[in-house]
Amino acid sequence: MGPDIPWYLAVSSILFAIGVGGVLLRRSPLIVLLSLEIMLNSANLAFVGFSRLHGEMDGQIFALAVMAVAASEVCVGLGLIVAMARRRLTLDVDTLTELKG
Amino acid sequence: MAFGGWLCLLAPLAGFLAILLAGTRITRRQAGILSTASVFVGFAGAVIAFVDALGRTPEDRAELTASWTWLTAGDFRVRLELLIDPLSLVMMLVVTGIGGLIVLYSNGYMAGEDEERRYFAYMSFFVFAMLLLVEGGNLLLLLVGWGLVGLASYLLIGFDHHRPSAVLAAKKAFLMNALGDAIMALGLFLAIAKVGSLDYGAVFDAASSGALSDTTVTLIALGLLGGAVAKSAQIPLHTWLPDAMEGPTPVSALIHAATMVTAGVYLICRTHPVFEAAPDIQHLAALLGLATLLLAGVVALVQWDIKRVIAYSTMSQIGYMFVGAGVGAYGFAMFHLVTHAFFKALLFLAAGIVIHHLSGEQDIRKMGGLRRELPVTHVTFLIGTLALVGIPPLAGFWSKDPILAAALAQGGALGWVLYVGGLLGAVLTGLYALRLYFYVFHGERGEAHAEGHHGEGARTMTWPVLVLAGGTCVVGFLAIPGVWEPFEEWLEPVVPPLVAPTAAQDWLTSLVAVTLGVLGSYLAWRAFRAGRELVADGALRNALEHKLWFDELYDALFTRPAQALALRLRDNVEQPVVQRGLDELAEGTLDAAAVAGRAQSGLLRTYALAFAVSVSVLALVFLVVR
């Protein structure tokens, strides 16, 4: 047996907070993307933890699904960043305000 | 019999679709040939069904072709089925036979016209619609055919769509017919509500067994009569027919003489149990017919347009048919329908040759002395005219007089009014028909002659006229009162007549009617010889030239109030409420969007913050509320 469930949840919460902080505070799109991944994986950790608590496989399966979505998302996100770099745009989310209302 | 019926119905439809889909890939000539062939194939189908029916016993001649369900709504269902019985067979033969001759004639008449393909497609379509009307196995199919016939007439009257008067006439015909369709639809709705079915059998059983209240039956009959009156151009919905002469002449022959306008008579005969259960309405039909035949007769006395005179004579003759159907002499009414189809198509087609010869001139004051230039047309037109007047042994004599005799046999005040009015109509017929004949074919050569050198036209034009003239001479012998009456016996199982005139009444009527017809003709001849008009100048003539102010009356009663109402609604409702309301809505949306747009900064991190804060607040709310 490993650590108790609260420890898993605590780590998950800390990871999620780090992710939120990264998304809110950093200006480089690359780092924002990384932070998003951290948030997703914190959720995965919570899933797996609960799966273990209840002794059921649902949470683990869901974690796999989240990973698949995360991978697709990274593809799109990195593709966008590469496209921006090619057009020599500044890699700063605060200057990308083209869609202002 | 079913095969013949379906072939008859579907051949013209196939012709219509073929011409429509082929477009410019076929020449104009081919379109005409295709259309003619499709209608004659339909005629062959009708003949097949007819021969089949002849081989059966009279009671066995009605056949409802088994078919499939078309509409279902709860218990109410309508089947797509054809009713082939002696009555519809008569109509099928007339529609495809006379119609085929007229379409054949069109090949010569319309040659060189623009858009000939469209014309022939419409002609086939019209024949299909009319066949659907007469063959439909229940009242709904009949109504469908009814509406399609109205559409076809709209398309054909407005064929010359670059002429504003033709477009107006087409609109007028369509509106009048649509009004009739709507009235008829109301009657059918009532039948659905009270009987629960539109099958002929069910409706007739309910009407004649007394299962329906008197009011219901009366209203259903009134609805049917409304449709019949509009389609057959009887008072008060008659004003479209004279204007419909804007269409090409063969169209006038086909739609406004031989077939379409007789649909009302067919309807009354077909639904006779309903009318018999509501005798007031049936008598109303007879009285409307009488009023129409007299009105059309007097108005025709002062018309100058060759086609309009014939159009008024059509209204007048259909008035006779309504009188016949109104007193319950269905066989006589249907027989007059058949003979009228022959001689009226003949008159129109002969008039078409005259118009064609004179390069489109229709004013009879500019004609005259044409009997030497158009000898064949002259003779055939004379045959048609005499048949119209009812001179023996031509068709009109055998069919019109029995109707009057039936009115006499009906007796009572109604019978006498119809009888005397009908005889008066015979004088008028002699007057206007012979006046037209003399103006066109006798006297001095008119001024319109210099332009025209078409002669009697192609063989496709003269042959149908000759065939119709032959038919006019012989078709009357299908019903010789008291001697040989195969026509009445043929219809007897389907539409048993209510009255049967005695031999004495027949002979008396014929004697009086022919005398009066000859008298009218003689007066017309005297007036023409003396160069006088039949109606002297003055108030009466003025009234007649305005067609007794029916158009003006409808204009004042319906058109102007409707226009005034529409104008007021536009100024007081549409502009201030609808238009302004929409403008306000649009401006409000724009303003709101401008405010909301400020929140959209385009800054990714602001959005993320808003997101995070919102989710946190929601999470807190859930924690607290739990």
Question: Your description of this structure?
Answer:
Chain A is built from 3 helices and no strands. By secondary structure, chain A is mainly α. The longest helix of chain A has 29 residues, at 58-86. The N and C termini of chain A lie far apart (55 Å). The model of chain A has no long low-confidence stretch (mean pLDDT 90). With 626 residues, chain B is mainly alpha-helical. Chain B has 24 helices and 4 strands. In chain B, strand 2 (68-73) and strand 3 form a beta hairpin. In chain B, helix 1 (2-22) runs antiparallel to helix 4, helix 13 (279-300) runs antiparallel to helix 14 (306-326) and helix 17 (395-410) runs antiparallel to helix 18 (412-441). The N and C termini of chain B lie far apart (81 Å).
Radius of gyration of chain A: 17 Å
Tell me, rounded to a whole number, the average pLDDT of chain B.
88
What is the number of strand segments of chain B?
4
What's the overall geometry of chain A?
Answer: elongated
Largest sheet of chain A: none
Percent strand of chain A equals under 5%
Uncertain ranges of chain B: none
Oligomer: heterodimer
Q: Identify the biggest protein-protein contact and residues per side.
A: A-B, 14 and 13 residues
Uncertain parts of chain A: none
- Could you tell me the strand content of chain B as a percent range? under 5%
Q: Major sheet of chain B: order of its strands?
A: 1-4
Task: Characterize this entry briefly.
By secondary structure, chain A is mostly helical. Chain A contains 3 helices and no strands.
Write the layout of secondary structure elements.
The complex is a heterodimer of chains A (101) and B (626).
Chain A lengths: L4 H21 L3 H26 L3 H29 L15
Chain B lengths: L1 H21 L5 H27 L8 E2 L3 E6 L2 E5 L2 E2 L1 H24 L6 H20 L3 H19 L6 H32 L4 H10 L4 H18 L8 H4 L5 H10 L4 H8 L1 H6 L1 H22 L5 H21 L3 H28 L17 H15 L5 H16 L1 H30 L17 H16 L11 H6 L11 H28 L8 H7 L4 H49 L5 H22 L1
Antiparallel strand pairs in B: 1-4, 2-3
Helix pairs in contact in B: 1-2, 1-4, 2-3, 2-4, 3-4, 3-10, 3-15, 3-19, 4-5, 5-6, 6-8, 8-11, 8-13, 10-15, 11-14, 11-15, 13-14, 13-18, 14-15, 14-17, 14-18, 15-16, 15-17, 15-19, 16-18, 16-19, 17-18, 17-21, 18-21
